[in-house]
Amino acid sequence: MNLLHGTRFLNIPCIFSSPDNHPLLVQFNSNPYYCNYSGFQKHQGSWAEVKYYKKCTSHYKAKICNGREVDAFPDVQTLRKFPYDEIFGKVVMVRFDSNILLKKELDMKTQSVINSVSTIKYLYEAGAKVILVSSWSVKSNAEKLEVESVADFLSSALQVKVGPRKCHFESTKLKVEKEIENSEIVLLENLSEFKEELSNCSKFAKQLAKGVDIFVNDAFSQSHRILASTVGVSRFCSTCLAGFHFEEGISQLKKAIDIDRKPYIGIIGGGNFRDKTAALEVLACKCDGLIFIGNMAFQIMNALGLPARSEFVEHGAFEGALNIVEFARVNKVGIMFPKDFWCMNDYSPKQLELFPYSDIPDGWVPVDIGPNSLKEINTLLSKCRKLLWIGPPNFKLTNQHTYGESNLVLMLHKLSQQNCDITVIGKRACREIANKSNFVSGFNMIESGSVVWEFLKGRKLPGLLALDRAYPFEIDWNVAYRDPTQPLVVDIGSGNGLFLLAMAQRRKELNFLGLEINEKLVKRCLNYAHQSDINNSHFISTNATSTFRPIVSSYPGQLICVSIQCPNPDFTKPDHRWRMLQRSLVEAIADLLACSGKVFLQSDIEAVAVRMKEEFVRYSKGMLAVEHGEWLEENPFVVRSDWERHVLDRGGQMYRLMLCKSNCCHTN
Fold first, then answer.
1. What is the dihedral of CA 482, 483, 484, 485, to 10 degrees?
2. How far is the C-alpha of 109 from the C-alpha of 107, rounded, in Å?
3. Angle, alpha carbons 550-230-117 (nearest 5°)
């Protein structure tokens, strides 16, 4: 095994052995980091020296570690935290993961299966009408392609009757065979049969979500893809939540990239180095050492100028591998790769021989890492406190005589007994661990390697971004207000805060809360309130559409008034995903508002004001009614917002109305 610490690269040569035992020089010069590489590649039976030249900039470390850090996860609303009594009677669509629930041998003891099943049964037992949607293929289970067979299989797994529903998408309409009955779980047709699913067709998604109140995404393995059933439908559902399995997937991914324990070692296997370079740079920034196995190892060897047969070297991977090596040098990150491989003869597949990395004969192909390499990996890992393994150690499907994967699992199991935090990523590795069922509890397992690679590349996860946002912090109302028991007035979309601050100064007996998505405006308002000693006002940067309920429900006093003034007209379009007035927001306001509480709506655009009124009347469950007929001539608060003053000064008209909560029997 070759362990290359960054300190060995700085201004000194590193000596390796060539195939003919001649010294091989890898020279690194500092300032401005010109790197001259002299290596060997075997081609047509003979080794040829190949020279490489690259200028490595001195700011490379800062570029990777500071400029391209992985984005923080958005906090999303989860089924676990959604009010249980709000589920009753709702139509809930669950996008489940067929890779988990449609396995040939469904292990009901694994956490992924437990969470997936729990999501569906939880909704069913809460009194929801549950619609199951997913896509499955022959690879999932060749015997369960028809929707009727899949429904029977799920009925057995859930211990609840699941009814199949065939559907047809014609002329922008999705036709379902039979209506959904009360307290029933139904399964729609295999979505992989529809090209509109893969293209995220808006019309298809709208029809799929027709009549759905709540969308629950429980297919974490598809969160990196843009599908109609994971992203498109979220535009047409008032509430979009993460199911139990999806929530666990987020938690596992957060845990994997957290650098809370040191030393942190990454074991990187598989292939396709070029496509994964950006992700490997992130891992190099987080880990103290990287162990490259599988085909990845030859790309690193090639970048270091070590012997690597041309057929093992990926086209276009050299520059990326060179960047990883240089980054490791600058950051003093150790790099290790195998020194021996089990190889298979092309003409005799059952014959396996052990060869050093530098002397693999023509006609022999590496299939697994060798025993000496495994021993040295074991030695290196003995002192690590956090470990991530992603990608298989072998090169292709191997026969029964190779044990690289099994030996790695045994090593990691031993480490887990020594309080090492271990994350295993990928179906094959997770399956190997699952086969040894007594090992499972010691590992953090993520079956979907594609999701992790995409996330590490710095790319957004569309399936995650499509879910409703949640407010991630607990609010200390005693800090926010002098007296948190005073009645509360909330202004949604508080903007520059002039209206709310003026109201707070006039009405000292009330507390005022501004919810505004623009963080800069919120900071400005908070600073002004602090400097002016206005201790009955507070502002929070958030998307109130999805966070109103969790924020306001924690307030110790009564909510007596909510105002929404002059929302952006674009946000009221029916097909706008983040339009200000959605059913979930209206329901939350109606539920949390005190009896006789008020809702004040106004806009300078009549169509917007009419739409807001209609939304409140339609979705307030009969608890809110319009006061004083139609439009109010004067602002009942006396204090005017800055936009209201601007409209009136130019001779424009404001459309205002007040709603009152008179029917209080539905209050939560």
1. 180
2. 5
3. 75
Confirm if 478 and 237 have CB atoms less than 8 A apart.
no
**Amino acid identity at 154:** L
Q: From residue 386, how far is each of 300, 413, 418, 427 by CA, in Å? A: 23, 13, 11, 21
| Residue found under tokens 């509430």 | 239
Rounded to whole angstroms, the maximal C-alpha distance in the chain is 96
Nearest-angstrom CA–CA distance, 214 and 228? 15
Residue 318: both structure tokens together: 């050299």
Asked if 314 and 41 count as a contact pair (C-beta separation under 8 A), the reply is no
What's the first-to-final CA gap in the chain, in angstroms? 65
CB 266 within 8 A of CB 291: yes
Looking at residue 60, its pLDDT comes to 40
Strands 185-188 vs 14-17: parallel, antiparallel or unpaired: unpaired
Taking the CA atoms of 623, 625, 627 and 633 in sequence, report the sign of the dihedral they define: positive
Q: Please, what is the angle between helix 147-158 and helix 111-125, to 10°?
A: 90
Q: What is the DSSP string of 434-493?
A: HHSGGGGGG-EEE--HHHHHHHHTT---HHHHTSPB---S---HHHH-S-TTS-EEEEET
What is the Cα–Cα distance from 528 to 531, expressed in whole angstroms?
Answer: 5
Q: Output DSSP code: residue 44.
A: T
- The kind and range of the H/E element at 65 are helix 60-65
Asked if 368 and 395 count as a contact pair (C-beta separation under 8 A), the reply is yes
Cβ atoms of residues 657 and 632 within 8 Å? yes
How do 34-43 and 364-369 pair as beta strands?
A: unpaired
Could you read off the pLDDT of 588-609 as tens digits, one per residue? 999 999 999 999 999 999 888 8
In order of 255, 564, 566, 630, 638, the CA distances from 651 in angstroms are: 57, 22, 16, 21, 18
Instruction: Tell me: cis bond preceding 338? Omega within 30 of 0 counts.
Output: no
d(CA 522, CA 500): 12
pLDDT tens column, 310-337: 888 898 999 999 999 988 888 888 999 9
pLDDT band at 352 (very low <50, low <70, confident <90, very high): confident
Asked if 188 and 147 touch (Cβ cutoff 8 Å), the reply is: yes
Say which residues have a Cβ less than 8 Å from residue 436's Cβ, sequence separation at least 6.
409, 413
- What number of residues does the chain have? 668
Distance CA 54, CA 51 (A): 10
Residue owning tokens 């700085």: 10
Report the C-alpha gap between 214 and 262 in whole angstroms: 42
Q: Copy the structure tokens of residue 11.
A: 């201004």
Residue 220 is encoded by which pair of tokens?
Answer: 């974490």
Distance CA(45)–CA(30), nearest Å, equals 36
| 193 φ, ψ (degrees, to nearest 5) | -75, -10
pLDDT digits (tens, 9 = 90+) for 361-408: 888 888 888 889 999 999 989 889 999 999 887 676 555 455 777 888
Q: Half-sphere exposure of residue 436, counting CA atoms within 13 Å on the CB side?
A: 18
**pLDDT(572) > 70:** no
Cβ contact 611:596 at 8 Å: no
pLDDT at 26: 36
**In terms of DSSP bridges, do strands 264-268 and 239-242 run parallel, antiparallel, or are they unpaired?**
unpaired
